[in-house]
Specification:
This protein is of the alpha/beta class. It has helices spanning about 10-20, 35-45, 55-70, 90-100; strands at about 5, 25, 50-55, 75-80, 110-115. The protein has one domain (about 5-115). The chain is about 40% helix and about 15% strand.
């Protein structure tokens, strides 16, 4: 599974994931700061990446819209607020654990999953 981290997450998390040989990029790396949530999800889907975010409500709403519009969607992984946003290694380790549990290359289209804290 490949990942795209929303701009609400530190690029340090993507760096940690890459050190563990996980294909991860982030909005910070590719100049997508201040892009809309829709543009972030479109970018992730265009690259076949699962979008990781803390922005639960907006991306659940967008997932429903993408489904209704038959737009490409490669899954969203929500990081709960029980994982502190400034604890990069904790978020990265939880993502690595999630990654190891999922043997498929990607989440099912339109899947919204929640990272375990």
């Amino acid at each position: 599974m490949k990942y795209y981290l929303d701009e609400d997450l530190s690029p340090k998390i993507a760096e940690i994931l890459r050190k563990h040989h996980i294909d991860a990029t982030c909005a910070h790396d590719i100049g997508m700061l201040q892009a809309t949530d829709r543009e972030q999800l479109e970018r992730a889907a265009s690259e076949g990446r699962c979008l990781i975010t803390r922005n639960r409500n907006d991306f659940i709403r967008l997932t429903i819209q993408f489904f209704n519009e038959h737009r490409p969607h490669t899954g969203v992984l929500i990081i709960p607020h029980t994982l502190p946003g400034d604890n990069f290694s904790l978020i990265a380790n939880a993502t690595i654990k999630h990654h190891s549990k999922h043997s498929k290359d990607t989440l099912e289209s339109y899947t919204v999953d929640f990272l375990e804290s």
